[in-house]
Automatic annotation (TrEMBL):
This is Acetate kinase. The active site is at residue 147. Mg(2+) binds at residues 7, 383. InterPro entries: Ac/propionate_kinase, Aliphatic_acid_kin_short-chain, Aliphatic_acid_kinase_CS, ATPase_NBD. The record marks 179, 240 as: Transition state stabilizer. The lineage of its organism: Bacteria, Bacillati, Bacillota, Clostridia, Lachnospirales. One of its GO terms (molecular function) is kinase activity. Its EC number is 2.7.2.1. Substrate binds at residue 90.
Length: 395
């Protein structure tokens, strides 16, 4: 079946058309600057990227252009919309309302809307994308796949903050976790690769990208993860601070006169490796600068690896052991230097780096030596394929 996967932001809409039988991506692209002017970037599998400026006052026009591009005589990949069997939508926050993917209908959309306060930048945009697709393809099934759903198996002691309990009861303040589609996909793939049921394994998945999170997957279930109520908690990220002392908010307010919005902007957009290095959130830039002797870039990379290693250690404790550690996403898959920086911290687990294997790019590979007591792997994630598969499973 062909599944159209949609990942909608407030002013953008990413899409992929996937043939779930062959697992092939048929075409992909992005609509940018929706509500401003509008631009469609479209790429057929194996083809060149085509960019065209198109007026996109709302997401409805964006969807219209995507569907036209997919059916275009010269560069399209389908003849009619009947060839799209279903649409899988990434929905960021499902709170406690959703423990798994769902078929979207009016009642479900209202329940997703109830979660909007928890992800004000993401959920409303996700819903706009769903409605635009419903308008364009009224008889095609729409499925919602939640970033938070995989982590709904976390035990109470992992998700409750040390805050007054009524904030959880009244306002649902708790840890939720994100990147669930990726953590689920990679942990299942790890089990396939090592040839054991996922139910018999303790796996730590390190999803290291622009946003980064780590997940402890015990017997196929998420038992803890580093992101919390929002994707700000946990690791030091591209521009997000991760774990900090909350009293820093008051301190910065007193010192710099920052209000809550100012401080949130700093913590989300001006912190992380970018904030430390004052240079870039991209690890390629930081590595270049490190090679030229830049102290702050070197420090940013060291802080990043140290935090990753500390989280791995805490999840070994949470699961009372670990069988496999997997690196994935932009940095986890491509940056052998970051992996090489993390590995020495794992010596107490009987892990040693296979330097030659660590330099292999873009494929599934074991980067620990054969003698290591715990296997460390690189497993490329594919969130779009995971969403497409979930969509087919649900139907
Ligand atoms: P993601 O959010 O998973 O798409 O990851 C994006 C990030 O991955 C970028 O900001 C870079 O820091 C990092 N990245 C991507 N490609 C490479 C590469 N070849 N080497 C090092 N880092 C990379």
């Amino acid at each position: 079946m062909n599944v159209l996967v949609i990942n909608c932001g407030s002013s953008s809409l990413k899409f992929q058309l996937i043939d779930t039988d062959s697992k092939d991506m048929l075409a992909k692209g992005i609509c940018e600057r929706i509500g401003i002017d509008g631009r469609l970037v479209y790429q057929k599998a194996g083809g060149e990227k085509e960019k065209s400026d198109k007026a996109m006052p709302t997401h409805n026009e964006a969807i219209k252009y995507v569907l036209e591009a997919l059916q275009n005589e010269a560069t399209g990949v389908i003849k009619s919309l009947d060839e799209i069997g279903a649409v899988g939508h990434r929905i960021v926050h499902g709170a406690e309302n959703f423990t798994e993917s769902v078929v979207l209908n009016d009642e479900i959309l209202a329940k997703i809307e109830e979660c909007n306060d928890l992800a004000p930048l993401h959920n409303p945009a996700n819903l706009i994308g769903v409605r635009a697709c419903q308008d364009a393809m009224p008889s095609t099934p729409m499925i919602g796949v939640f970033d938070t759903a995989f982590h709904q198996t976390m035990p109470e002691h992992a998700y409750i903050y040390g805050l007054p309990y009524e904030y959880y009861e009244d306002y649902k303040v708790r840890r939720y976790g994100f990147h669930g589609t990726s953590h689920s996909f990679v942990s299942k793939r790890v089990a396939e690769i090592v040839g054991k049921p996922v139910e018999d394994l303790k796996i730590i998945v390190c999803h290291l990208g622009n946003g980064s999170s780590i997940c402890a997957v015990k017997n196929g279930k998420s038992v803890d993860t580093s992101m919390g109520l929002t994707p700000l908690e946990g690791l030091v990220m591209g521009t997000r601070c991760g774990d900090v002392d909350p009293a820093i908010l008051e301190y910065l307010h007193n010192k710099k006169g920052f209000d809550v919005d100012d401080i949130m902007k700093v913590l989300n957009k001006e912190s992380g490796v970018y904030g430390i290095s004052k240079l870039s959130s991209d690890f390629r830039d930081l590595t270049d600068a490190k090679l030229k002797g830049d102290h702050k870039a070197t420090l940013a990379l060291t802080v990043f690896a140290y935090r990753v290693a500390k989280y791995i250690g805490s999840y070994v404790a949470a699961m009372n052991g670990v069988d496999v550690i997997a690196f994935t996403a932009g940095i986890g898959e491509n940056d052998e230097l970051v992996r090489a920086d993390v590995m020495p911290y794992l010596g107490y687990l009987g892990i040693e780096l296979d330097e030659e294997a660590n330099n292999i790019r873009g494929e599934e590979v074991t980067i620990s030596t054969k003698d290591s007591k715990v296997q460390v792997m690189v497993v490329p994630t594919n969130e779009e394929l995971a969403i497409a598969r979930e969509t087919v499973n649900l139907l």
